[in-house]
Amino acid sequence: MNDPAKFVDEALAALRAEVPGKAIVAASGGIDSTAAAVLAHRALGDRARSLFVDTGLLRAHEVENVRRLFEASGVPATVVPAADRFLAALAGVTDPEEKRRRIGTTFIRVFEEEADRFGADRLVQGTIAPDWIESGGSLRDTIKTHHNVGGVPKDSRLKIVEPLRDLYKDEVRVLAAHLGIPHPERQPFPGPGLAVRVAGLVTAERVETARLANAIVEEEVEKAIAAKTLPRPWQYFAVLLPVRTVGVMGDNRVYGEAVSVRIVESTDAMTGTAMDPPADLLRRIAERITRGSAGKVTRVLYDITDKPPATIEWE
Predict the structure, then answer these.
(1) 4-179, which class in CATH?
(2) Who's near 307: CB < 8 A, 6+ residues apart?
(3) DSSP code string of 126-142
(4) Of 234, 244, 235, nearest in space to 209 by CA
(5) pLDDT for the residue numbered 140
(6) What does pTM read for this prediction?
(7) Which pLDDT belongs to residue 242?
(8) In the chain, where does DSSP find H-type helix?
(9) Do you find a cis peptide bond into 308, omega within 30 degrees of 0?
(10) Where do the domains of the chain lie?
């Protein structure tokens, strides 16, 4: 995408052609889906309805932050509470691919219900090139199924519309800045949310532990960015691992869980390099996570693996 203004003109025309009636828009608050939502509302006006689904798998204060983002971006959005449905869909599941498929299916079922209420037969998504590339198909291996690609059930009655399908993340950020979306440089957050940052079983308690750890990592990294002791990373987060580890609280033995911290630099998410953050930053993160979890987390690790061979997210 060499010219964002030209891209916008073409995308608006394509949206009007692809959506003769009404559409709902899957708006997660990320840069991709927000850009798609802005385009959809500019092209379709009140024939578009943006939905932000509260899956119960979100970061701390995510609903409030996303509401503010939509207001600043000129996107009228409705919050749909669905935490119980997503946790029920994930009960007993540990395989990452199955998690993504179930999350994708649950999203679609929620969207179908809302589309019926609105009288829509189209679903606008912020799918970008890495999503369908990593999801496999044709001669490509499946690296990981993105919930908005391979997670879409074949029996869905909604026709998918993807105005950003051929763009990469760096191009979407340029587009978002052109559209006036605040903070286009902010880090990506996966559509499946904390479900892919809770390795192993996904329970309400484990999600809350991961939510706390993620919030601490974000707060400390952003402080380091502001203090100019760390350049802005591409992504920075914590993963709750499916292992138990012995720890000590006072004079007592505890048997808690382990967290891995990941801080990565990249330009398009197709490759990534694990950063070498200051040791005192990692120590602060580890101390805050272990103390703040009240014994639920007894060990904090740092992931130094690049992409490839690893992916940026663990699952």
Answers:
(1) alpha beta
(2) 264, 266, 271, 272, 273
(3) ---HHHHHHT-BTTB--
(4) 244
(5) 44
(6) 0.87
(7) 96
(8) 4-18, 31-44, 62-73, 83-90, 96-118, 129-134, 169-179, 204-226, 279-292
(9) yes
(10) 4-179, 197-302
